[in-house]
Design a protein that fits this description.
single chain; mainly alpha; Tetracycline Repressor, domain 2; 10 helices; 74% helix; 0% strand
Amino acid sequence: MFLRRKNGSILDNKCRAVRRTISDKEATVNDLASRALRPSRKPAPRPAWSVTGTEPFTARDRIISAASTLFCNDGFTATGVDAVIARAGTAKATLYNHFPSKAALIVAVLEAEGKAWRYWFFDRLAMLEQTPRARLLGAFDILYDWFADPYFYGCPFLKAASEFNSGHSDVHGSAAYHKRQITEWLKADLAEIGIDDVDQATRGFVVLIDGAIIAAQSSGDPAFALNSKQLAKACILKQCGE
């Protein structure tokens, strides 16, 4: 009797061990299957419309990229030089070797951001049907994609202009240069479709573009670009007498 109980106990233990092994293997298989079916969480691609989307290779590049991220998301006046240095991973002396003041750094960021954004915008514009009307209306679809980007933080020039008064001529000069590049394109295409008062129509388009940017930033809704597109279309039809 003792031997049977002992042998039976050994057998029971072996059975339990086998069941645990099978159960563990099934759990492992189920976990692997669950992971395979689970959508991977890949980080959003770096924005092509911002200088932060370019890999920084030099200390100056790292400083501008870090400053752009902080200035554009947290504010120009609210962000101190120490925060930029910490994010860039550089020494304070390195920053001041490249930029004699915070104001100079702000201007450099605006110039870099403007150059990156205009390259992206006009490159996208060149992909559209090459008629002035297609470009003028398609521009708002491009703005929609910009607004829908998870990295979208609004227009750095509108931000800077709102934070600094007209006494900061360098800042306002950078904003004016950027705006001039956009308005010159608008004027050329509006003139080509035969609008009589090109200057007035250009100002109207600027209001639609800037208004959509501000509304999308404050609400998080990219559809404001499409609302502006409909108004722009109505403006073109009215101005052209259609």
